[in-house]
Each structure stands twice: as structure tokens, then as C-alpha cells.
């Protein structure tokens, strides 16, 4: 877990795409998913939040599920392959919200 700290730092600096994470940390999509889940848990205790901006189809505007951590190949609605990848970043919560 050497790069967990580096990962959090990166997410706090700016929005990152799954590709950036894969390239920076030399990991695959499955690893990205696992790491983001760990980050999410760590952040909960720090009153911060991992925000996932879902992937969007450039062609028709279809918004993918936030659970889609990797960039989808194709739009299920118009079959276009012009997909804007999901992005992740860390947001600091001003006040703890109860859900
Ligand atoms: Zn589409």
C-alpha cells in the first residue's frame, strides 16, 4: 500500500480519470476499483468524500452509472464509442451529514 497516500494526494489535487490512475500507478482497472474503495473508506473517517463523476456519451449525452469505475467501451443507447471517461476527486465536507 505504498501508493495509497500518493493516490489520495493526487485525488485531492485534481480530477483524475481511470487511465491516469492506471498510467501513474501502473495498475489495472480491477486494482483501480479496489483502491478507490479503500480510499472511500479512509476518507469517511476524515470527513472527506470521494466524488465520482460518471462517464458520459459524447454523442447522445447518456450518463453511465457511478459504479462504472472504468471507461465504458460503448454507449448502450446510441452505440457510439465516443465516451468521456469517469473522473474522480476528493471533496472535503464542511459539515458531517447524517444519512
Ligand atoms: Zn450515446
Q: Nearest-angstrom radius of gyration?
A: 14 Å
The hetero molecules present are: zinc ion
Strand content: 15-25%
Strand order of the largest sheet: 1-4
Largest sheet: 2 strands, antiparallel
What is the CA-CA span between the terminal residues? Answer: 30 Å
Total number of helical segments? 3
The shape, in one word, is globular
Overall mean confidence score, pLDDT: 91
Roughly how much helix do the residues carry, as a percent range? 25-40%
Number of strands: 4
**What's the domain count?**
1
Encode the helix/strand succession as letters.
HHHEEEE
- Helix/sheet category: alpha+beta
Which residues sit in consecutive blocks of at least 5 with pLDDT less than 50?
none
